[in-house]
Known about the structure:
Blueprint: H1 2-5, H2 7-20, H3 22-30, H4 49-59, E1 76-87, E2 90-94, H5 100-106, E3 112-114, H6 134-141, E4 147-154, H7 158-174, H8 177-181, H9 183-192, H10 197-233
Parallel strand pairs: 1-4, 2-3
Antiparallel strand pairs: 2-4
Helix pairs in contact: 2-3, 7-9
Amino acid sequence: AWWDGTLGFWCNAIPALATHGYVALKRVLVAGQYHHPQGIFYGGTKQETSIEKLLEFMTEEERQILAPIGKKDPVVWIDVHTGLGPFGLDTVVTEKPLSSEEMEKWFPTAYHRLTPELKNTGAMDGYELVKGPLMSLIYETSEKTALSLTQEFGTLPGVLVARAIILENMMHQYGEEQGKRTIGRSWLQAAFYPQSTQWRASIVRRGVSLALQSLDYILANQNQQGSQEETIAT
């Protein structure tokens, strides 16, 4: 375990990085796989129960939370992630077909803003083979009316994040129970929730800013739609 977690990892990682490059290796990891149940990012054989329950709750007839704008109040859905990008800074990705100018106008505090055409660049480089992310599912279920955003906060360099995921999975699959609860968890926490007050203050500040800006966007577009409907009626 000591060898795999230290020198052994780097003895395998460095030649692979030199041969294939960082983005190619990242693409293989984040795209997932369906042939090795004990491997990382295994896609499974059916939809997760949590996703089924979530969609059931949000599309039930008496709620219709994800109903199109005009039938019910519009929805803002922000999926918060950590792990990719500069330390403590956010990359914001939208499923809506907004232009770069619109993204800058409505979400000015985001460090990096990605439109659908550019969403596989920067911190999200290598994600072009990923199919079926939650944000796309929410957006499509709402008949493309929900403002669905992903806010990704950077932590450690990508290679160290990948190392933590690989080692935690190794511990989960083959380690002792005590190790699963302590060592594996500590690796993930270091990679996805750094023990830094500066980092935590930044994600709270930027997270609240994006939430408020998203509400401003929804309200402005709702008012605009209301004005257009009144004009048509007149």
